Amino acid sequence: MKSIEELRRQRAEVNAQVQELAQLETENGELTAEQLEQFEQLAGQFDKITEQLTRAENVERMNATASTPVENYGNRSPAVHTKPELKQYTGAKVARMAMAVAAGKGDLQLAAKFATSEIGDADVSMAIETSAGSGGSLIPQNMHDEVIELLRPRTVVRGLGAQTMPLPNGNLSIPRMASGATSSYVGEGADVLASEGSTDDVALQAKTMITLVPFSNQLIGRAGFNVEQLFLNDMIASMAVREDKAFLRDDGTTDTPTGFAKICADEGRLVPWNSADASDMAAIDAYLDTLILTLMESDSLLLQPGWALSPRTYMKLFGLRDGNGNKVYPEMAQGELKGWPIKHTTTIPTNLDTSGDLDNDETEIFFADWNDVVIGESDMMTIDFSREATYKDASDNLVSAFSRNQSLLRVVKEHDVAFRHPEGLVLGTEVPW
């Protein structure tokens, strides 16, 4: 007789195929004769497996009822080993799924068994069982949402208020107003020309981001909060850095998103630093006001304005003091600059040469109504495992996981970014401070 776990996995696979046929019928209105025949076969298999599963569960229950208690030895009772209650926190199930996939060495059946017996999380075990045959362990939508929630405070673009929308089938078109309707006054008996606003679409198309998390083989097969946190923190940190770089500075080539800087360059939304003295407090303050004014004069709604800077620029502004020794921007201690949220990230470089002066010490300041920024998220996210793969380390050196006694967990995620109204963006360039 097959094990209960195996029967449950087989029934979950049959159910997944039935749901696919049901979805096809919903979309097309009816099934073909071949699909109807397949549906009947799957229904029969589901019922047969259910009967086998019921018998297996009854056998296990009767065996437990008829079992003989363990005798005591002297005054000592037999030891009972219990696992501590699992800690529940955001991202826990994603981390446990990764630990189970690693322990199973890519075998999802073994991974599901590890999730049940060693980790003790039935939800993770079920998620792994139902994702068999998907080219990796498919992360369910509710667990995927936890990853997005963890990314929000770790990334500049998400943290400043960018909207998140689903990408059905990897694509989404968002309508926007391209030109507005006009209004005018008219005297009695005079004609007025009617005008209408015109619209166009902002298109999002899923781009694939792969995150590789090197993992010591000595930790594989171990369950616990500390191991979970190690993987989760490494994964989120890597995702956050790459996301910010893509959403802010990628140019849309080599299958990357088209970021903030590229859109500003194409739409003429650049404001270069215009003073020779990088230490002139008045010039710096006036420059920041110019960025704000540029956004205001473009009729931006300013629903969610905010600043994104390099750490160097952030600390320059944070440390500015007037002639009396008072801080020029004391509100930065509360995370604001001139009344709007401010964040810093190392993905904004400080070695640019936009002006052509060959100094290679320039950076950029991103100021926008982040409500106009839309991140499209695909519901497709998978975790896979390899012991033989190679990867590049922080110094861009090729590393063999096998030679370092490591394994690699690969997280595949799809998303894209779009900007509904370019007039809601402004990019400060050639900034030497």
Automatic annotation (TrEMBL):
Stretches assigned to the Phage capsid-like C-terminal domain: 135-428
Keywords: Coiled coil
SUPFAM superfamilies per UniProt: Major capsid protein gp5
Gene3D superfamilies for the chain: hypothetical protein PF0899 domain (3.30.2320.10), Major capsid protein gp5 (3.30.2400.10)
Cross-referenced InterPro entries: Phage_capsid (IPR024455), Phage_capsid-like_C (IPR054612)
One Pfam short name: Phage_capsid
Annotated coiled-coil segments of the chain: 4-34
Record's subcellular location: Virion
NCBIfam families referenced in this protein's UniProt entry, alphabetically: major_cap_HK97 (TIGR01554)
Name this protein carries in UniProt: Phage capsid family protein
Organism this protein belongs to: Halomonas lysinitropha
